[in-house]
Amino acid sequence: MSRAREWSLARQLFALQITVVTVVVAAGLGAAVAQAEHSTEDGAESRALSIAHAVAATPEVRDALSSPNPTTVLQPHAEAVRTATGTDFVVVMTTAGIRYTHPDTTQIGKKFLGHIDVALRGADFTETYTGTLGPSVRAVVPITIGGTVRGLVSVGIKRSAIDRSLQGQLPVLALAGGLALLVAAAGTWLVNRRLRRQTHDLGPRELSRMYAYYDAVLHAVHEGLLLLDAQGRVQLVNDEARRLLGLPADVVGRPVTDLPLGASLGKGEEQTDELHLTGDRVLVVNQRAAGGGSVVTLRDHTDLQALTGELDSVRGFAESLRSAAHEAANRLHTVVSLIGLGRVADAVEFATGELALSQQLADRVVEAVEEPVLVALLLGKVAQASERGVELVLDPESAVPSGIADPRDLVTIVGNLIDNAVDAAVAAPPPRRVEVAAWVAEEELVLEVADSGTGLDAEQVEQAFARGWSTKTDERLIGRGLGLALVGQAVHRHGGTIDVTGDAGAVFTVRLPMRARVTTP
């Protein structure tokens, strides 16, 4: 394995960026040199052309062409112009290309080396050509008198002179390129330094492996996970959180206040194992600050809460049986003592009276309620209420057909309403009484629970079904204020409604539509 592959991602990017910057600067420097060369050559052509035009328009030159010996006039003039302008040659010639002037006097009278056809047609031009002085950039301009070309002027600058001018610019270009490379390298180093901090100097394979592990863990955990930024927008959500909250695919980037539980989560306050209700779930929520935002975890507590409710019911039944066992023992001792005293008739009357009373209550409940789970719940609640000094009464006109709703939801609704009613009755002066009624009206099952408590004011009625609301003043936190919220959740799940009145004792009326009926085998 090569050493380069062991470099961190930041180092690899730094090396790559330096390479790219060097190539770009080198390419830019090359382009600048080429541009400078082109500009220098264009400048030389323009300068030669301007000087040639000036010589061709000079009266002294035009007059000399008509003299018997033009060279005697033109040679000194041409050399003076060449010296003054810094060009390498100024040649005046005939239309046949025979030189009148030249820096090398031995070349006077000889034929000009270069093209003159365009100038003979009355137009000027420039070209690069190798003559007696070597390669040069030259301009050729016609001398026109009376509309006729009477001679030609050529002004040239040798390539070596142009190259020397270009070489004088190279140090400046090289310095500019070096400064550009230095600035780019410094910027790249600063970016690399920040990148190293953000990636913890990890290599690409390490980052890729970490991402794979992170993604696998994120989607494998059985807890819902939400990551929120400092503005309360969702930045990350896993599959379980989508399922628990019923989130859409485009949830990332949306404010958390748009989501279920958003009113609570949007406050940004830390939460530890708090119970919250959505439309059909009971969720345990934890929220912690992290990295300028917050992390929210969600656990599904729905089934556990249902089982807890059933366990509470079973525990209540067990307590009722225990109490009943004590009562039965007391009654049995009483009956035995009466028989021992020879009062058999009184013993029979006492025993049968107690049995008739219990059987009458059981018969009334069984006759009114066809749902066996609800029957068991009501009988258990009667015993529990009796132990706490509260009379629980079932309206004799009550009738609950079987299969009207999920039995577990009925236990949640009726059980929690009775528990709250008994608590309210216990907290009020005697007589303490709870009345339960149930009937079917207009394709709806109506459940009504009334207590002899102090009732609820308008504000309490409005808050009664909010999670965490309770009229109880003890310091227990677990489950407190959740019963009525669970009732509201179950009723909402069945598409029903709840009405609460609280003038003289609270009356809770639940209506469940018949279309939610569940057929039992």
Automatic annotation (TrEMBL):
The keyword NAD does not apply. InterPro entries: HATPase_C_sf (IPR036890), HATPase_dom (IPR003594), His_kinase_dom (IPR005467), PAS (IPR000014), PAS-like_dom_sf (IPR035965), PAS_fold (IPR013767), sCache_3 (IPR033463), Sensor-like_sf (IPR029151). Residues 210-250 form the PAS domain. Gene3D superfamilies: Histidine kinase-like ATPase, C-terminal domain, PAS domain. It is a multi-pass membrane protein. The keyword Nucleus does not apply. The chain crosses the membrane at residues 170-191. Keywords: ATP-binding, Cell membrane, Kinase, Membrane, Nucleotide-binding, Phosphoprotein, Transferase, Transmembrane, Transmembrane helix, Two-component regulatory system. Its EC number is 2.7.13.3. It is found in: Cell membrane. Residues 295-516 form the Histidine kinase domain. Pfam families: HATPase_c, PAS, sCache_3_2. GO terms for molecular function: kinase activity. It catalyses: ATP + protein L-histidine = ADP + protein N-phospho-L-histidine. Its main location: membrane. This is histidine kinase. It comes from Cryptosporangium japonicum.
